[in-house]
């Protein structure tokens, strides 16, 4: 069955938007719409909110499935690790964690969260770092639309230091600095900007012109310390450090998890790209610049395609690799959403269910136990994108729960 045939099945009524049975040519699957976890913001450990990241799910999502389907000491994986939500929640719940992402930025964000430091350690280290070295800014990337020259000089000094200093304290400083690179309040290093997305330089210049303001000086160290205090306020640092030793973070393609042993994972909680709904390269270009990650390399590695056939094959190949690493009887909870495709509103959960039952794709690998649709309210980010509640993928959690057979 081709991806177009899968699409035809869905558009011809093989699925349902409501609670009940999701009908497929291969049988029915229970589909439940409910509030499985709270729609309230920032209810779990504060480290989860250390960074904004496009298309990331709430920590309540992995928390729900980890508690429901695993025991302490089990292994939980995420092949699309993003900002590390799954691996952090696994560590907090005393599970071993595996997190992978094709973008090396993911490891830079996730590692410090499962290997946290204290505010005191961070303050002591920052006091030792000299950010006052003279820098010829004409030899650097032009970021004048974002940063005051003195702020930019401090950032370049910090980036140069972090290139050669990589212990856990330094890495936590880096992760926190990444969270402050752009935003809309005085707590960020930049002029007024968008916090979740690295916008193009030309767009930032337009914002500055519209507001009639140029970037003002934002001292770097104090903002890192202030944000770190917020990120670490939930505590449990020593306990999290002890479980951090059991978390493994890798960088690579989800279709070839070479560092994940066969039949080693009890549960996967993950969310793949929703076709091309998010540009994971351009939306993080400032973070990539700070970390010296070449964006041209990422363009060829990250799968973000408008082609349903290519997307279906990519997800199918990823599921085949997950079948290798998941234990028999283990589970995959894959969160997808709704996208506009060829003029139609397409439920990717229904495409995913059909993939598991197609001989061309994943027949005989996984049994779909149920589909869960999280009923939730707007988030601030959803409102920014004019997302209608429970209508578009950026604001809808649709989880296909599969069991390895």
Features:
405 residues, alpha/beta, Rossmann fold, 2 domains, nine-stranded mixed sheet, two-stranded antiparallel ribbon, 15 helices, 11 strands
Write the SSE topology.
Layout: H1 3-14, E1 20-24, E2 27-34, H2 60-69, E3 75-78, H3 85-92, E4 96-101, H4 105-114, H5 119-128, H6 149-162, H7 168-179, H8 201-211, H9 220-231, H10 237-244, E5 247-251, E6 265-270, H11 285-290, H12 295-299, H13 308-325, E7 326-336, E8 338-341, E9 344-347, H14 348-356, E10 366-374, H15 380-384, E11 397-404
Parallel strand pairs: 2-10, 3-4, 3-6, 4-5, 6-7
Antiparallel strand pairs: 1-2, 7-11, 8-9, 10-11
Helix pairs in contact: 1-14, 4-7, 5-7, 5-9, 7-9
How would you portray this structure in words?
- The chain is built from 15 helices and 11 strands.
- With 405 residues, it is of the alpha/beta class.
- The chain has 2 domains: 3-106 and 237-280 and 302-404, Rossmann fold (3-Layer(aba) Sandwich); 119-231, no CATH class.
- The strands form 2 sheets. The protein has a 9-stranded mixed β-sheet with strand order 1-2-10-11-7-6-3-4-5, with helices on both faces.
- Helix 5 (119-128) crosses helix 7 and helix 7 (168-179) packs across helix 9 (220-231).
The helix content, as a percent range, equals: 25-40%
Number of strands: 11
On the 0 to 100 scale, the average pLDDT is: 91
Major sheet description: 9 strands, mixed
Specify the CATH homologous superfamily of the largest domain.
Vaccinia Virus protein VP39
User: Secondary-structure element sequence?
Assistant: HEEHEHEHHHHHHHEEHHHEEEHEHE
CATH class of the largest domain, anyone?
A: Alpha Beta
Percent range for β-strand residues: 15-25%
List low-confidence stretches: 380-394
The total of helices stands at 15
Overall structural class, as computed from helix and strand content, comes to alpha/beta
Radius of gyration: 22 Å
Question: In CATH terms, what is the architecture of the largest domain?
Answer: 3-Layer(aba) Sandwich
CATH domain fold name of the largest domain: Rossmann fold
- First and last CA, distance: 21 Å
Number of domains: 2
């Amino acid at each position: 069955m081709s991806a177009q045939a899968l699409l035809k099945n869905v558009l011809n009524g093989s699925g349902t938007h409501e609670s009940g049975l999701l009908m497929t040519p291969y049988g029915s699957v229970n589909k439940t719409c409910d509030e499985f976890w709270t729609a309230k913001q920032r209810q779990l450990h504060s480290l989860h909110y250390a960074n904004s990241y496009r298309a990331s799910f709430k920590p309540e999502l992995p928390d729900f499935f980890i508690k429901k389907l695993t025991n302490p000491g089990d292994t939980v994986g995420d092949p699309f690790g993003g900002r590390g939500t799954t691996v952090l929640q696994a560590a907090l719940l005393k599970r071993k964690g595996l997190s992978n992402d094709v973008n090396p930025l993911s490891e830079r964000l996730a590692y410090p969260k499962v290997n946290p430091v204290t505010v005191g350690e961070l303050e002591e280290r920052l006091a030792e770092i000299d950010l006052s070295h003279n820098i010829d800014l004409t030899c650097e990337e032009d970021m004048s639309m974002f940063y005051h020259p003195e702020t930019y000089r401090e950032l370049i000094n910090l980036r140069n230091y972090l290139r050669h200093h990589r212990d856990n304290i330094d890495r936590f400083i880096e992760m926190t600095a990444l969270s402050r690179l752009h935003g809309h309040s005085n707590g960020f290093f930049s002029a007024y900007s968008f916090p979740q997305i690295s916008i193009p330089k030309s767009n930032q210049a337009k914002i500055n012109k519209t507001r009639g303001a140029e970037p003002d000086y934002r001292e770097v160290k104090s903002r890192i310390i202030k944000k770190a205090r917020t990120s670490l306020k939930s505590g449990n640092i020593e306990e999290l450090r002890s479980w951090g030793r059991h978390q493994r973070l890798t960088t690579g393609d989800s279709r070839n998890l070479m560092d994940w042993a066969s039949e080693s994972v009890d549960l996967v909680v993950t969310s793949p790209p929703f076709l091309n709904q998010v540009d994971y390269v351009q939306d993080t270009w400032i973070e990539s610049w700070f970390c010296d990650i070449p964006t041209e390399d990422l363009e060829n590695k990250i799968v973000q395609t408008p082609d349903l056939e290519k997307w279906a094959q990519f997800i199918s190949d990823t599921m085949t690799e997950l079948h290798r690493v998941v234990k028999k009887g283990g589970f995959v909870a894959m969160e997808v959403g709704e996208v506009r495709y060829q003029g139609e509103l397409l439920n990717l959960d229904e495409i995913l269910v059909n993939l598991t039952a197609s001989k061309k794709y994943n027949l005989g690998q996984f049994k779909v136990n149920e589909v869960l649709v999280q009923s939730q309210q707007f988030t601030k980010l959803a409102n920014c994108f004019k997302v209608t509640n429970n209508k578009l993928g950026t604001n809808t959690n649709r989880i296909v729960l599969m069991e390895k057979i």
